[in-house]
Amino acid sequence: MTERDEDLAQRFAAAFRAHPAGVAIITADDGAGPAGLTATSVISLSARPAVLAFSLSAQSSASPRIEAAGTVVVHLLGAGEVELAKRFATGGIDRFAPPCRWHRLPTGEPVLSTVGTWLRGRIADRLPAGGSTLVVVDVEEADPGTAAEVPLVYRDRTWYALDERAVTT
């Protein structure tokens, strides 16, 4: 990597550290048991049909297992679930061990019992991009939770509750 490339990488990372993102946990089972990780890269691509995407870093030990699964559950976290977000962002532990509460959906995927908003879908495409893989998911089931939940966001390596103040013009 050249000095110019390194400078661009540092500036790119600084720009996105300052940009807040919603926090999600991705869970799946590739046949070897449940796997999961915390992600801030989840985006809605389309409502009709329902399609979302997220990226998986090659550095995460859970990424290959999630990428290999045919289906995933994307949990959109509320501010009260910050400890769960931290747990699924920690490497080298059994993320599904107590006190984590989870169960399987009738279709077999692991779902976090305490998270109110989740979407289940089939992996439709995988696109290698840099040191990550962009995963496209056709959503087959959604539980929107309640509007009363305050969203959890992540900015500059810190967790925040998104409050109700709106900015209007």
From TrEMBL:
Q: Which segments constitute the Flavin reductase like domain?
A: 16-161
Which sequence ranges form a coiled-coil region, renumbered to this chain?
none
Q: Name one GO biological process term.
A: pyrimidine nucleobase catabolic process
Q: Which SMART domains match?
A: Flavin_Reduct
Question: What species is given as this protein's source?
Answer: Prauserella sediminis
Keywords attached to this entry: Oxidoreductase
Q: Name one Pfam family in it.
A: Flavin_Reduct
Spell out the Gene3D superfamilies in the cross-references.
Answer: Electron Transport, Fmn-binding Protein, Chain A (2.30.110.10)
**One annotated GO molecular function:** FMN binding
- Put simply, this protein is called Flavin reductase (DIM6/NTAB) family NADH-FMN oxidoreductase RutF
